[in-house]
Specification:
The complex is a heterodimer of chains A (214) and B (277). Chain A is mostly helical and 214 residues long. Chain A has one domain: MetI-like (MetI-like fold, Orthogonal Bundle), CATH 1.10.3720.10. Chain A contains nine helices and no strands. With 277 residues, chain B is mainly alpha-helical. In chain B, 77% of the residues lie in helices and 0% in strands. Chain B is built from ten helices and no strands. In chain B, α4 packs across α6. Classes of the chains: A mainly alpha (214), B mainly alpha (277).
């Protein structure tokens, strides 16, 4: 294992970048996904269509293609971000579509009577969504949302193809330099699996916490 | 209430408000489109010269070959993972705790590792073990490992969703455990799983684009970037075409999945097994 010592700094940065991508990607995707979900059930037809079109486009284009297009294609048009920023933006845009679809299934699970009651109490459409529907929808989809989060964790590795030095990229670099693919990739794989398992546990705990509000 | 709005039809005031929203949305959309068009025009996206290469059939043949390579890898990986997935699913339902735990560990591990990491690992490690396969097989192996974990869990869910009586009846008729699984449970489970399997096909197809990192596998994304190096003015156009082609294929596949899902509910009145993503 001594061959790892000169690379410890790099590895730490790789893990830090992965966590950064996950954190920023998740915050962005949750916000954008919630906005899209609200748009998706809006009483205004055009707003619904816009959200539906967004989901169709971003869900069905492979994230690797989006990443390459964004990081290498858009600079031709003079739209240029740092590689890390591009990776975060692509992760947010891709996963927002999944968050939206997940949240919408939660919205559909809210009883119609709740909405009718809230309307008759004088809540407008937005107030109903904001105060009545969304809190219940979020509580029902904790588990599926956890799956989207794990999808996001795994997809942060795609940032490696445009050269963001996150965990997968760093592991590949060290493995090639030291010709020790098995140990290095094994370690990186364990790191990913541990992150996923820990997140799954946390999601299960959260799911139990909110169980009563369903 | 899967489509449409949550709310009752609007009254006069609601209609006015909705119309105002409608106008605002169109204005914003038009504004975004205008800015995007101007940016694209300045960047030369619509220049005739940049589109020139696409007049040659050879360029399209290259892109088509790339796409064919994506589809080939996706289909082989999907077929393999369905075969292995059935065994894994069977293992996940095994009465022996050791088998069950081992299979569970396999699904957890390969569900948790990014496919890209698997791909890097396989492309570096297998040649070191003396298995110098073409890049196609590196891609297929990585995707199969991941997809097997997903399909295995699907098979488990599918078989569990088949009514208990089916298995009991088979046992009462003297079917062996293997026969029960192969003749009675799996066919019904596969029918329940079919929408989810098509969705998984979309995920695998999206995954084939990761072959971009191998460098030696000529997939559509690679074809588009190679095109961009030959005709440097057309690289954005080539990438955009690749993105649109993938999008259309995946939308078509998703429609198929949704159609099967609907059919299933209509014909058998059962909820098909869903993909956990």
């Amino acid at each position: 294992m001594s061959f790892l010592v000169p690379h410890l700094g790099e590895l730490a940065w790789g893990v830090a970048f992965t966590f950064g991508l996950v954190a920023l990607g998740w915050i962005g995707a949750t916000i954008l996904g919630t906005v899209l979900a609200i748009m998706r059930v809006s009483p205004v037809p055009t707003v619904r269509v816009v959200a539906a079109a967004y989901i169709l486009v971003f869900r069905n284009t492979p994230i690797a293609v989006q990443m390459v297009l964004f990081a290498f294609g858009l600079p031709i048009l003079g739209i240029e971000f740092s590689l890390f920023t591009s990776a975060v933006i692509v992760l947010v845009m891709y996963h927002a579509a999944f968050v939206c679809e997940t949240l919408r299934s939660g919205v559909n699970a809210v009883a119609v009577g709740e909405i009718e009651a809230s309307r008759s109490l004088g809540f407008g459409p937005f107030g109903t969504i904001r105060h009545i529907v969304l809190p219940q929808a979020f509580a029902t989809v904790v588990q599926p949302m956890g799956n989207v989060l794990i999808l996001l964790v795994k997809n942060t590795s795609v940032a490696a193809i445009v050269g963001v030095a996150e965990l997968t990229f760093t592991a590949d670099k060290i493995a090639i330099e030291e010709v020790k693919a098995f140990v290095v990739f094994g370690g990186a794989a364990i790191a990913y699996v541990v992150i996923c398992v820990v997140l799954k546990r946390l999601v299960a705990v959260l799911d139990r916490k909110v169980a009563f509000s369903k | 209430m899967s489509e449409g709005t949550l709310f009752e039809p609007p009254g006069p005031r609601g209609r006015r408000r909705n119309r105002a929203f409608e106008i605002v949305t169109w204005t914003v959309l038009a504004g975004i489109a205008l800015v995007a068009m101007r940016k694209a025009d300045q960047g030369g996206l619509f220049d005739a010269a940049a589109w020139q290469p696409f007049a040659q059939p050879g360029v399209w043949r290259q892109l088509g070959l790339g796409l064919l390579n994506n589809l080939r890898a996706a289909i082989v990986a999907m077929a393999l993972s369905m075969v292995f997935g059935c065994f894994l699913g069977w293992g996940l339902l095994s009465k022996r705790a050791v088998v069950r735990k081992a299979c569970r560990a396999f699904t957890d591990v390969f569900n948790g590792i990014p496919v890209l990491l698997l791909l890097f690992f396989i492309s570096l490690e297998l040649p070191a073990w003396g298995l110098d396969l073409p890049d196609f097989w590196f891609l297929v192996i990585a995707l199969t490992l991941y997809s097997t974990a997903v399909v295995g869990d699907l098979v488990r869910a599918g078989v569990s969703a088949v009514p208990r009586g089916e298995g009991e009846a088979a046992a009462a008729l003297g079917f062996s455990e293997l026969q029960t699984m192969w003749l009675i449970l799996l066919p019904q489970a596969l029918r329940l799983m079919s929408p989810a399997l098509v969705s998984q096909m979309v995920i695998v197809l999206k995954g084939t684009t990761l072959a971009f990192v191998l460098g030696g596998y000529f997939d559509l994304l690679r074809a588009a970037t190679v095109l961009g190096t030959f005709y440097s003015r057309s690289s954005l156009q080539a990438l955009a075409i690749a993105a649109i082609v993938f999008m259309l294929i995946n939308i078509a596949l998703s429609q198929v999945a949704a159609a099967i899902d609907r059919k299933e509910k209509e014909r058998y009145g059962v909820e098909p097994v869903a993909l956990g993503e």
